[in-house]
Design brief:
This protein has a 3-stranded antiparallel beta sheet with strand order 2-1-3, with no helix packed on it. It has strands at 3-6, 12-14, 49-51. Helix content is 0%, strand content 19%.
């Protein structure tokens, strides 16, 4: 599974871990995240993330 980093704040979305605090289950692929999902730290959208 891949990791994606927020280019604004450095938060790493790890597909293996998901985003449990925001009800995203472990194993959820980045491309499967809803378009309304935002970075938990800086609140910017998926478009600012780059694959690590």
């Amino acid at each position: 599974m891949a990791k994606y980093v927020c280019t604004a704040c450095g938060y790493v979305y790890d597909e293996d871990l998901g985003d449990e605090e925001n009800s995203i289950k472990a194993g959820t692929k980045f491309e499967d995240l809803d378009d309304s999902w935002v970075c938990p730290l800086c609140s910017l959208g998926k478009e600012v993330f780059e694959k690590e």
